[in-house]
């Protein structure tokens, strides 16, 4: 059988190491980088539908929105200008993730986290105080730069700090913070939409999570991997012993040092990435964020209020429903944290995919049945509840599969020397497609109508098959031994030659318990 045959204990090697308070604290602080991303995802949709905000900064949009009295539920008023304002952040994040790549590699993961925090902080202040569109857009660009730096460095930091057996759990702390950020933003918008100046508070409060990660990053040690890579071997050894809670770290330290030897030989991360041995992680890292966005999740995250209004809820009820999806998003991420290192990444990806597909088909059928192609109709209370129930089941499925794994898997599958560039590819592709979906969703809804749910469902089917065939299990595999996973995969093995395997204890490949198809 294809990808499913990979078992996780490549080589059966296990490093000693405990779940220490030190590693828990370091990962908790670093994960707070996810808060800034999440807060932004949650805040923009609500703010751009506040009347006081629109009339101040986008008066023409405001006027047109008020004039729009169409009864077609699929084609409510949409403004490219406004969505462009929202999505501009993602373009800035995309661009800055390239700058983050070299900072993360040459100066360490922690300084990129710091850069992320401080630029986001400045952006939040400018936005909160904005008196004109220029300030608004400048602030937004800085927020984007902050997200680019944080998303590029935090997942790497977490994956490198964590002991192999807990890597999934600790890395998903990042996604958990994203979901908490989204929920906090939804709640704040809900309260603030009642006040004229509410938008200022909503935008300005983004400074709180930014402050946490800015100060937090200054207190964090860098990862042993990055320290060795930058020539600080002694310090790396100390940190490794501290995070693992044992002095018995020589094996792991040797693997890290071997990985760093390779790292020193490369001239350009980007050129190296194109070598055949990097083909497997590169292809997976391009496709995972692309697919993550084509699950359609951000249609719910950005447009939940619009969507719930479309299916017949009033203003307040639609916000409340968005809060409900927010809570489910957080809770289901916790489920992922609990099971990811036990059952593995593939089980979650596959189960999540099937569940999302079923829900998308159900929502498409229910909405199509109620509104047909004309988009005119009304839903009874019970009917709406069923639709909301399906949307919640869909959000839960995403939140324990593609949400966290979209950040975890790309951060753990590259060799050290190009891990930073690899993560940039992940962020850039993710931001690009988040931008595209944000930009075209309302137009797509207007044209494809309820078929839009089948469109995303089709993509979910494709991505689930892709995982089944091409994404090997990586749970419990030490991060610097990932090459063995590719070497043992039925499809990817042809790209990895024996000479590419520089794991300290090469015997491991021979002793490998990997069942080959
Ligand atoms: C995705 C975001 C999404 C969020 C929802 C993240 O993993 O990258 O695009 O909005 O999950 O929780």
Tag the structure with descriptive keywords.
single chain; mainly alpha; disordered C terminus; binds beta-D-glucopyranose
Describe the overall structure.
With 517 residues, the chain is an all-alpha fold. It has helices at 21-31, 33-47, 51-57, 59-67, 80-106, 109-128, 133-161, 167-192, 198-204, 207-219, 224-229, 233-244, 250-265, 269-272, 279-294, 297-310, 315-343, 345-371, 381-400, 402-412, 416-448, 451-470, 482-487, 507-511. Helix 5 (80-106) crosses helix 7 (133-161), helix 6 (109-128) runs antiparallel to helix 10 and helix 16 packs antiparallel against helix 17 (315-343). The longest helix has 33 residues, at 416-448. The chain is globular and about 70 Å long. It starts with 20 loop residues before the first helix and ends in a 6-residue tail after the last helix. The model is unreliable at 1-12 and 505-517 (pLDDT under 50). Bound molecules: beta-D-glucopyranose. The site of beta-D-glucopyranose has 15 residues, from helix 8, helix 16, helix 20 and helix 21. This is Sugar carrier protein C. Keywords: Membrane, Sugar transport, Symport, Transmembrane, Transmembrane helix, Transport. One of its GO terms (molecular function) is monosaccharide transmembrane transporter activity. It is found in: Membrane. Residues 26-475 form the Major facilitator superfamily (MFS) profile domain.
């Amino acid at each position: 059988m294809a990808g499913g045959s990979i078992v996780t204990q490549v080589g059966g090697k296990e490093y000693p190491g405990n779940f220490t308070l030190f590693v828990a604290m370091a990962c908790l602080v670093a994960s707070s980088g996810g808060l800034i991303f999440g807060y932004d995802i949650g805040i923009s949709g609500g703010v751009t539908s506040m009347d006081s905000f629109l009339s101040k900064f986008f008066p023409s949009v405001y006027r047109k929105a008020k004039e729009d009295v169409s009864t077609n539920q699929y084609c409510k008023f949409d403004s490219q200008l406004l969505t462009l304002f929202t999505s501009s952040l993602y373009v800035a994040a995309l661009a800055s993730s390239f700058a983050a790549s070299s900072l993360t590699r040459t100066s360490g993961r922690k300084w990129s986290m710091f850069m992320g925090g401080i630029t986001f902080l400045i952006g939040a202040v400018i936005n909160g105080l904005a008196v004109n569109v220029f300030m608004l857009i400048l602030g937004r660009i800085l927020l984007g730069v902050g997200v680019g730096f944080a998303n590029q460095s935090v997942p790497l930091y977490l994956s490198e700090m964590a002991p192999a057996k807990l890597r999934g759990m600790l890395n998903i702390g990042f996604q958990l913070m994203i979901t908490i950020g989204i929920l906090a933003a939804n709640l704040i918008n809900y309260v603030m939409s009642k006040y004229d100046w509410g938008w200022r508070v909503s935008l300005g409060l983004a400074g709180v999570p930014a402050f946490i990660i800015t100060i937090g990053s200054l207190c964090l040690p860098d990862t042993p991997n990055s320290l060795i890579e930058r020539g600080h071997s002694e310090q790396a050894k100390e940190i490794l012993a501290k995070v693992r809670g044992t002095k018995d770290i020589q094996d792991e330290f040797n693997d890290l040092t071997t990985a760093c030897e390779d790292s020193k030989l490369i001239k350009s991360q980007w050129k190296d990435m194109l070598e055949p041995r990097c083909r497997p992680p590169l292809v997976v890292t391009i496709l995972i964020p692309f697919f993550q966005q084509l699950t359609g999740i951000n249609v719910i995250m950005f447009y939940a209020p619009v969507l719930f209004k479309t299916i017949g809820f009033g203003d307040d009820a639609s916000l409340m429903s968005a809060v409900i999806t927010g809570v489910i998003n957080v809770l289901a991420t916790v489920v992922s944290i609990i099971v990811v290192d036990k059952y593995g990444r593939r089980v979650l990806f596959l189960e999540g995919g099937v569940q999302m597909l079923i829900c998308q088909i159900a929502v498409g059928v229910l909405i199509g049945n109620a509104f047909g192609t004309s988009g005119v109709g009304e839903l009874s209370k019970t009917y709406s509840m069923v639709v909301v129930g399906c949307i919640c089941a869909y959000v839960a499925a995403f939140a324990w599969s593609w949400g966290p794994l979209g950040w975890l898997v790309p951060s753990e599958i590259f060799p050290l020397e190009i891990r930073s560039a690899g993560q940039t590819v992940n962020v850039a592709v993710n931001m690009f497609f988040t931008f595209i979906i944000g930009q075209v969703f309302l137009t797509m809804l207007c044209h494809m109508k309820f078929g839009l749910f089948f469109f995303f469902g089709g993509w979910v089917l494709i991505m689930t098959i892709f995982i089944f065939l091409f994404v090997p299990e990586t749970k419990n595999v030490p991060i610097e031994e990932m090459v063995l996973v590719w070497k043992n995969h039925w499809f990817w093995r042809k790209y990895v030659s024996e000479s590419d395997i520089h794991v300290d204890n090469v015997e491991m490949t021979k002793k490998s318990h990997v069942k080959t198809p």
